[in-house]
Every structure is written in C-alpha cells, then in structure tokens.
C-alpha cells in the first residue's frame, strides 16, 4: 500500500515532449493520481515560443498515424492538427541508383500515413491542456537526486538556488538523457556514435510537395524532406533532415544560402523542382543511446532518457508515445488494485510489455542507417534490390508501412476512460 504522507503521487523530471505528454495522459486516464512536473525551463504558455526547452524548438516532428490515434484519445488531436501536415505518400530512394519504393495512404485505407507537426505548436497545445488539468508545476527547477524509500521515493529538487525535497510513489525520468540524472540513478546507457550530424532546416521548392515525404539515401548519409504547411500556403514548404559527417557539415555551414540550396539540390535531386530557399540551419550530433533496463524500484526512464534514435526514420517520439501509454495503462491497473505505482512489479510489467516494440523500433532505425549508409557495391546492390523488392512485394511494403505508421497493434488505453475531443478541449 501507498505511504500516507507522500507530497504527491507521480514526479516527472522533465516537461519536454515526453514528460508533458505523460503528465497529460495520467491526468486524463488516472485522474486520482497527483502529478508534479519538475522542469528546468519556465513552464507557461507566455514563455512560448521563443525561449523554450529543446523539445519545443523550431523543428517539426513526423508523427505516425498511431500517434494521431493516441492524441485523439488524449483529446488533443483537433487542436494539434491545426498545424500538422498530412503525409499521404512516402517515397524512399537511393541517390544515383535505380531502386525506389512508394507508399500511399489510400492503399492502407487511411487518410494519411502520418503527419508533420510543428514542435512549438505541440508545446503550446500541451502546455495549455496541462494548465487546465490538475497538474502541479515546479519550474524553473531541476531534479538533482533521488533516494528510494520503503514504498516510494524522495526526490531532491534545486529551485531558486535552494534544495527542496519532494516525496512520491514514483519518479519518471523524462530529462532527455542529457542532465546526467539517468547515470546518477545507476542506469547504464549504451551509445553508438554514428559519427554524423543531423542538419535541420525549412526549405521552399518550386514544385508543391503534394503531401509526399521523401526519404533519400545518399553516399554521405540519409536525408528526409517532410511536407509542411497547409494547401492554402500552396504546399511548397518542406522540413529537411540531412545527415552529414563533421567535415561536410562544417563545409556546408560556411556556404551562402544560395550555395546551400545548390548543394542540397545536388544531393536531393529535382523531385520537388528547384530548391529556392533554405531557412535557418540547426544541427545535432547523431547517436543511438539505449538502456537495457529502464526500471528500478520507484523509478522509470521514458522518452530520450530511455532511447534516443537517429531522426531520419522519424521514430523517436512515436516510440516514446507508445511507451508512455503502456506505462499509463499499468498505472491505471495498479491504482485500481491499490498497489503503489512505483512498485517494481508494476514497472517491470510495463517494461515487459513495451520491450518488443522498443527493441524492434531501435533495430529498424539502426538498420536503416547501417544498410543505407553503406556505399560498398555488394551492399548497395542488395539494398537496391531491397528497395525494388519492397516496391513490388506487397507483404514487404506492408511491413515498412506498419513501421512508418507506428500502429504496432496498440489498443486504446482504456475505452471507458477515453477522453472525447470536445470534453477535453481547452478553451483559453
Ligand atoms: C533533429 C531531430 C529530429 C527528430 N525528428 C523526429 C521525428 O520526426 N519523429 C519522431 O518521432 N521523433 C523525432 N525526433 C525525436 C524526438 O525529438 C524526441 O524523441 C523527443 O524530443 C524526446 O523528448 P524528451 O521529452 O524525451 O526529451 P527532451 O526533448 O530533451 O526534453 C527533456 C526536458 O527535460 C528538461 N530537463 C533536463 N534535465 C532536467 C532535470 N534534471 N530536471 C528537470 N528537467 C530537466 C529539459 O529542459 C527538457 O525540457 C527527432 C530528434 C531530433 C534530434
């Protein structure tokens, strides 16, 4: 049973995409739990969109169809979809080689294979919904340590230059993996450094994207062009994710915008006509970081703290979201049974249920880089044969589409507590 004198039930370290979505999901699905989010940056819609944490920067996130379904369950989709562009087609190709594969939403009886959502807008929607929900904020504040108790945890928080203690049944670490909290609590991450960087920019092209996402594999690494903007904006904007090694990145960053457009044209080709504009370029080093065990008594890692993937396959947040919903389902069951949500049996059951999806998604995104990052002739030939095969063999295509759509056979968390769009909608 739960200790009587806990300050709160669930403490979430980090209010980025993963932490904020988890807080909202718990507020919707297990409303009797008291949730406290501790976030290093100020948390208020007024702080958006300029001065905010990494989750809510100028990037876009490719949301799988399955993620749309989850946001519908959370009552946030109708608001999120105001700035989410549908992906109706995916075109996968290999620069300078003959293989290509195409996926179409209509072949899967869906209106879209996925969506490209604006991160700042997602942040704003999440903050608004959370301010309206019964969630407590400690921000700006940092989780600096944690001590296990008999039936819960004591978390040390640094706020306004002072250290405070907060007790709860369970600590969820959603700090993105950069704050060192994961290591401090004894988790051991494994990291593969791809020796590459992701360059992110918004790009305008002379041809409309027609709601097509392009995944293109080049000798220097994979790139993706994701459709952005509503048809009202004539659909000429795309979000670029371009992987480059350090040397190529440095060289590109020194170029004028005109030359950058030319370099990109050379790599990407002419499928979207002329590349007429490239916006501000941000870049991130690319690594695959995972942990074998994401749970300890009273503690669980989620989001990038548990698994940070290569962004080209667009799987990181989608995988995180499915994990969050599996965790919330365990919290619901534990609460119904009067068991502490931080007990090892509850958290281990979550890990057992999420592990297969997690391992397969990590493997899928890693193999995309390993197979398509190679320029050795036999591998390149096999890979072309693979792409052509994928285009011809319906079963192989369906497998790829299932990965891209991120449905993974997930069922709604609890049909009885599924929020409706109307009832859950926040009105400012
Ligand atoms: C270039 C790029 C493109 C991507 N594209 C896609 C995509 O298309 N589709 C997809 O599914 N995924 C994509 N991803 C992955 C996706 O962005 C991440 O999965 C997602 O941002 C993870 O969010 P998070 O909340 O786990 O971590 P973060 O976004 O890093 O958030 C962590 C939060 O914790 C706070 N924090 C840190 N330390 C502490 C502490 N000690 N105490 C309190 N708070 C703390 C930080 O301020 C921050 O707000 C992409 C990633 C990158 C880098």
UniProtKB/TrEMBL annotation:
Name of the top EC class for this enzyme? oxidoreductase
Write down the Pfam families for this protein, in alphabetical order: FAD_binding_3 (PF01494)
Q: Which cofactor does it need?
A: FAD
Pathway assignment:
Cofactor biosynthesis; ubiquinone biosynthesis
Give me the stretches of Basic and acidic residues compositional bias.
419-428
Gene3D superfamilies in the cross-refs: FAD/NAD(P)-binding domain (3.50.50.60)
Entry's EC annotation: 1.14.13.-
Q: Which domain of life is it from?
A: Bacteria
Q: Where is this region: Disordered?
A: 406-428
Name the Gene Ontology molecular function terms of this record.
2-octaprenyl-6-methoxyphenol hydroxylase activity; FAD binding
Q: Keywords for this entry?
A: FAD, Flavoprotein, Monooxygenase, Oxidoreductase
For the FAD-binding domain, which residue ranges apply?
7-364
Question: SUPFAM superfamilies given for it?
Answer: FAD/NAD(P)-binding domain
Q: Does the keyword Oxidoreductase apply?
A: yes
Q: Which InterPro entries match?
A: FAD-bd, FAD/NAD-bd_sf, UbiH/COQ6, UbiH/COQ6_monooxygenase
Give yes or no: UniProt keyword Oxidoreductase. yes
Q: What is this protein called?
A: 2-octaprenyl-6-methoxyphenol hydroxylase
């Amino acid at each position: 049973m739960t200790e009587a004198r806990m300050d709160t039930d669930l403490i979430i370290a980090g209010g980025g995409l993963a932490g904020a979505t988890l807080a909202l999901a718990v507020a919707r699905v297990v409303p009797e739990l008291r949730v406290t989010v501790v976030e290093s940056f100020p948390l208020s819609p007024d702080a958006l969109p300029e001065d905010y944490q990494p989750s809510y920067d100028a990037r876009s996130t490719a949301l799988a169809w399955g993620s749309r379904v989850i946001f519908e369950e959370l009552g946030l989709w109708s608001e999120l979809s105001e700035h989410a562009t549908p992906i109706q087609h995916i075109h996968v190709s290999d620069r300078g080689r003959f293989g290509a594969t195409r996926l179409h939403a209509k072949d899967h009886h869906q209106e879209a294979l996925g969506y490209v959502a604006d991160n700042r807008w997602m942040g704003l929607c999440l903050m608004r919904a959370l301010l309206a929900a019964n969630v407590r904020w400690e921000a700006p504040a940092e989780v600096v340590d944690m001590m296990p108790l008999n039936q819960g945890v004591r978390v040390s928080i640094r706020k306004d230059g002072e250290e405070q203690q907060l007790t709860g049944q369970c600590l969820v670490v959603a700090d993105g993996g950069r704050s060192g909290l994961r290591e401090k609590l004894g988790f051991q991450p494994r990291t593969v450094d791809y020796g590459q960087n992701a360059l992110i920019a918004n790009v305008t092209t002379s041809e409309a994207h027609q709601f097509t996402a392009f995944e293109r594999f080049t000798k220097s690494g994979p790139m993706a062009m994701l459709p952005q903007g509503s048809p009202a904006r004539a659909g000429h904007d795309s979000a670029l994710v371009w992987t480059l090694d350090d040397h190529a990145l440095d060289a590109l960053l020194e170029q004028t915008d005109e030359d950058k457009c030319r370099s990109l044209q050379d790599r990407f080709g002419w499928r979207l006509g002329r590349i007429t504009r490239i916006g501000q370029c941000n870049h991130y080093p690319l690594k695959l970081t995972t942990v074998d065990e994401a749970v300890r008594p009273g503690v669980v890692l989620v989001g990038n703290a548990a698994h940070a993937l290569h962004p080209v396959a667009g799987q990181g947040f989608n995988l995180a979201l499915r994990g969050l919903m599996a965790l919330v389902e365990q919290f619901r069951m534990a609460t119904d049974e009067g068991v502490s949500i931080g007990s090892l049996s509850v958290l281990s059951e979550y890990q057992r249920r999420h592990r297969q999806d997690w391992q397969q998604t990590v493997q899928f995104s890693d193999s995309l880089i390993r197979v398509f990052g190679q320029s050795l002739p036999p591998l390149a030939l096999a890979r072309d044969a693979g792409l052509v095969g994928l285009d011809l063999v319906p079963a192989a295509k369906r497998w790829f589409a299932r990965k891209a759509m991120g449905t993974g056979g997930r069922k709604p968390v609890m049909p009885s507590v599924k929020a409706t769009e109307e009832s859950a909608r926040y009105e400012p």
